[in-house]
Design brief:
This protein is an alpha+beta fold. Helices cover about 30% and strands about 15% of the residues. It is built from eight helices and eight strands.
């Protein structure tokens, strides 16, 4: 994923999520006080057994709402039981204008349903953690694979619930192998560590990706700073299948 922003969190150094639990807990408490989340004792197995409708390849089963009648205060009654926190979906879920896909309308009630923001292990789920990290880092634009498109309306709900302005989103096609499936280990070792061991530099990889998007005319090493002025969405739209 590519993030663009002007925040100063980390001062250019990696930020470790385990060092930021207090920030995630603060966001969780805000959601709890607003009665936007509820404790859920259902395991993944419980949800799979209760949900009869089929679901997409990379999505989980639709949560049937077993614990939806609980209030946030119900957590006090579950001292001897493990539970996660789920976000209570509103009657309609937000559409969003994607810089690559255009208007996107995903019905979250048909795609997973009420979603987990805090896991039973006592750690934040992806949706909450990424919203807190991006908001506090001043991220204004997010470019990521289209497999994460369904996460966006969930994250927009969290941004609004926490009083933050969502960034602009762009979801682009994934790199695929000869079989048309997204690039994975079955197509060979594509890890960055393997490319580095083979002599590929960071600038060389950036150049390869930039050429595949049509931003430069040939595969040549280039730094991210040098590439930034050459970024053009219209070129990517034209050349994304290259």
């Amino acid at each position: 994923m590519i993030y663009v922003g002007s925040g100063s969190i980390g001062d250019g150094h990696p930020v470790v999520q385990t060092d930021r639990l207090d920030l995630y807990e603060s966001a969780l408490n805000k959601l709890r006080q607003a009665e936007l989340i509820y404790p859920c004792t259902c395991t993944r197995g419980d949800v799979e057994r209760a949900a009869s409708a089929p679901h997409a390849e990379h999505a989980g089963p639709v949560y049937p709402g077993t614990c939806r009648s609980r209030r946030a205060a119900s957590a006090a009654e579950l001292v001897n039981r493990t539970f996660s926190w789920r976000f209570r979906l509103p009657s309609s879920t937000p559409k969003f204008n994607d810089q690559f896909l255009g208007l996107v309308d995903i019905d979250l009630h048909q795609d997973e349903g009420d979603f987990v923001v805090w896991k039973s292990a006592g750690t934040p789920a992806y949706q909450l953690a990424v919203v807190v990290d991006d908001a506090l880092s001043g991220v204004t634009d997010v470019v990521r694979g289209d497999d994460l498109g369904p996460s966006t309306p969930r994250q927009i709900l969290l941004y609004h619930a926490l009083g933050w302005e969502p960034p602009r989103f762009a979801h682009v096609p994934l790199v695929v192998g000869p079989d048309g499936r997204r690039l994975a280990k079955r197509h060979g070792d594509t890890r960055l560590a393997t490319l580095r061991a083979a002599g590929m530099t960071a600038q060389g990889l950036i150049g390869l990706l930039a050429w595949s998007c049509g931003w430069i005319e040939s595969m040549q090493a280039i730094s991210a700073r040098e590439l930034l002025p050459l970024f053009r969405w219209e070129l990517f739209l034209t050349n994304h299948s290259r």
